[in-house]
Amino acid sequence: MNTPPHAPSSFPANPAADAEIDVSVRSNARVWDHWLGGSHAFAVDRAMGNRLALEFPGLVEKVRTTRHFLGRAVGHLAGEAGIEQFLDIGAGLPTSGSTHLVAGRAVPTARVVYVDNDPQVVRYARRILAGTPGDAVAYAEADLHRTEDVLAAAARTLDLSRPVALVLSGILGHTPTHEEACATVERLMAALPSGSYLLAHDMSDTLPDWCALQARHNSSTSFPYHLRSAEHIAAYFAGLDLVPPGVVPVVSWRPDEPDPYGPDWTALVTDIVGGVGRKP
Fold first, then answer.
1. Is residue 160 part of a domain?
2. Structural domain includes residue 232
3. Is residue 191 part of a domain?
4. 100 part of a folded domain
5. Structural domain that includes position 60
6. 3-state secondary structure the chain
7. 43: domain CATH number?
8. Distance between CA atoms of 191 and 200, rounded to whole angstroms?
9. pLDDT tens-place values along the chain, 280 residues long
10. What angle separates helix 43-55 from helix 28-35, to the nearest 10 degrees?
C-alpha cells in the first residue's frame, strides 16, 4: 500500500477504555479509524481491519481517498462558499481530517453536528470531543432514516433557518434501495433552507472485480453495502446546482495537484463517485 501526500495522521487523544466501552466487540467506526492510520482502534478492531484489507485489495486506499475528498469539499464550503454550519450523518469517529477540524480551520465560528445510530460510537466520539472548547461541536445519536430525529438533534446546535451543509460520506450505500436512498436525501434537503449544500459520495459499480468482492461480502454480513451506478449516485443531487466539476470520481474533484496519488493508487479508487450541490 502506498501512502498519498497529506495522509491523515494519528489523532493524539485516545479515551481510556472503561465499562462503557466494550473493547471485546469490534466497532466499524474504530476499524475505519485504523484504516485511516488513527490511534483509536483496539486489538479486535485492528484484526478485523487487517483481515478486510486483505480480502478487499485497495480498501485502505479507498478509505483514505474519501477522507481527502471530504477535506477538500468541506474546505471549499467553509472557505469559499461561506458555509458555517455542517450536519455530518454516519460520520464515525471525529478524528484527524474530520469535518469540524477542516471547517474550523477555515471558519473559527463553524458549528458542526455529527450523527450516528450506534450508541457505542456516539459514546466514544463524545469522549474524543470532550476537550473541544465551547458548544460548537456536538455528537448526537439518531438514525439517518428517521429525519425528524436527526433534525431535532441538529437544531440543538445549528440554526436550521440558515444554510447548512449536509454531509453524507459513503453512508447511503447502506440504504437497501436506490429509491430509499434518494428519498432520504430529499427529505433532509427539503428541511434545510435555500443556500444549503449536499456533500455526498458513495462507491459505484464501475469496477467489476470489486463488485464481485462486495457481493460475496454482502452475502455474509448483517451490514451490507450496495454498490450503485454513477448515474444513481448523481441522482442524489437532483434539483441542486452542482459545484464544478459536478458528480465525478472523487479523486478528480478539485485535486490539490493534477495527479496527487499516482496511476496505481488512482486506478484503485475511480469507483468512488461524489460531488457537492447547492440548494437554489
1. yes
2. yes
3. yes
4. yes
5. 28-278
6. CCCCCCCCCCCCCCCCCCCCCCCCCCCHHHHHHHHCCCCCCCHHHHHHHHHHHHHCCCHHHHHHHHHHHHHHHHHHHHHCCCCCEEEEECCCCCCCCCHHHHHHHHCCCCEEEEEECCHHHHHHHHHHHHHCCCCCEEEEECCCCCHHHHHHHHHCCCCCCCCCEEEEECCHHHCCCHHHHHHHHHHHHHCCCCCCEEEEEEEECCCHHHHHHHHHHHCCCCCCCCCECHHHHHHHHCCCEECCCCCEEHHHCCCCCCCCCCHHHHHHHCCEEEEEEECC
7. 3.40.50.150
8. 17
9. 444 443 333 333 444 445 567 777 888 999 999 999 999 999 999 999 999 999 999 999 999 999 999 999 999 999 999 999 999 999 999 998 999 999 999 999 999 999 999 999 999 999 999 988 889 999 999 999 999 999 999 999 999 999 999 999 999 999 999 999 999 999 999 999 999 999 999 999 999 999 999 999 899 888 899 999 999 999 999 999 999 999 999 999 999 887 778 889 999 999 999 999 999 9
10. 70
Task: Give me the number of domains the chain comprises.
Answer: 1
